[in-house]
């Protein structure tokens, strides 16, 4: 059986750190905590788990901090987590099995990273991360912000999930780091341009973000999943300001790089539904539910855009053309994902009457 070092970088995480460590304490053999300047009880709490704690002066560089944490690991493999991450009991059991049976020729294991859960504990969005890596490979983190682990070799995908249970609001911390890089004339990589655009976008500087997204696209050098996200956010921005021409432009631009992603299909379905072009709306919503992402996909996946959302919209579409039996089928399919959704319940009541009328009409004929 392999041995595992858990490596984390933390600062003022007293509200969540015990939740994280409680969830994984039984599957790791060593806990490495790199503290970047806590002034709360974080350090005292992690020491209760036998953690090895190291202080690290924060220099606005996440990669440096993570690489330092990796340098302190001593076990066969390294598992990394953030303080507001949790591994659920079912995934812990899967992890134990993985740990017992992992072929030592594997250099990295990717796991699903669930970024949000709905009220039914269904993932709302997720992506894959290289989560468990062989220590002797000396993989390094790259990037001051939105850092990534530069992994290569024998990579295995698994169905284990880590859940991000964020309890702090989004701040402009990362945006400030990018602004500082600009002031210091630090060259931006293509990836930096993309994430700078994201920080502008999510801090509500959307017009400035649109400029940076276009700059990113013009490099012709970005990761295809980042390109699609840039197109999605540009399309959403132009929709918000009523620029239909550019909204469509960036939806269709995303098609240049890959098959239409489900969120783009839903955008087109919504557009045509609002224009009362029902057949076109049906086409794109059907495309959304048929276009499930690959399990190997490392990019961001919005689960609702290929599950319950297009199914509910198909119910609406078929109701508009008086095909109530078809509408009912799609509403019940949506209910399997979101049984308590208000639209599901409303549709049931509406369709109950319509289906009864249809049955009575058929009986009379």
From TrEMBL:
Superkingdom per UniProt: Bacteria
GO molecular function list: glycosyltransferase activity
UniProt entry keywords in alphabetical sequence: Glycosyltransferase, Transferase
Domain Glycosyltransferase 2-like: 5-139
EC number(s) given by UniProt: 2.4.1.-
Pfam families the record matches: Glycos_transf_2 (PF00535)
Record-given protein name: Glycosyl transferase group 2 family protein
